[in-house]
Amino acid sequence: MGKKGKEIVKAKLDEVIKDLLAAYSDEWLAHYQYWLTARWIRGLDADTLKGVLEKQSADELVHAGKLAERIIQLGGQPVMHPNQLLEKAGCGYKEPPKDPADLKTVIQDVLNAEACAIEYYSRMCEKYRTTDLVTHEIFEDLLKDEVDDEEEWEKFLAKP
Ligand SMILES: [Fe+2]
Ligand SMILES: [Fe+2]
């Protein structure tokens, strides 16, 4: 990152990178969780859920990409080995239910992941509001997306 770009970051770089790495890890884990779940599930409504899982899985990967770019821009390194994704993650990973027809659990697991992301991004938006405007904007974009994601899944919950 350039001289002026660095100068305007008032937050501690190590801390910003650490916070970005947690988000980066969670996005990869959500990407993988949704991607795998889309392939695993079976049953009456599975096709509808598959479509949404596929789409959101792709979105989470785009999120990971934005976070990686900012990490590198700040002079940090994205997670270089997948072993470390779980260590660095804040929200973690939930494997698809053993029963591929248990769509209720699928929906609840995704909602939990989205709720955790919303909470984290909301906290990060507050934290960097005045100390790192570029990072703040990334967290804000991601926050908006996760709020949309949650809304989309809550509609499934409301179905009888
Ligand atoms: Fe995301
Ligand atoms: Fe999401």
Q: How many helical elements?
A: 6
Q: How many distinct beta strands?
A: 0
What is the overall silhouette?
elongated
Estimate what percentage of residues fall within beta strands: under 5%
Any ligands, ions or cofactors bound here, and which? fe (ii) ion
Largest sheet: none
Supply the helix-strand structural class: mainly alpha
What is the residue-averaged pLDDT?
A: 96
Listing every helix as H and every strand as E from the N terminus to the C terminus, the arrangement reads: HHHHHH
Helix content: over 70%
Poorly predicted tracts of residues? none
Distance between the termini: 52 Å
Tell me the Rg in angstroms. Answer: 17 Å
Short précis:
The chain has helices at about 5, 15-40, 45-75, 85-90, 105-130, 135-160. By secondary structure, the protein is mostly helical. Bound molecules: fe (ii) ion (FE2) (2 copies).
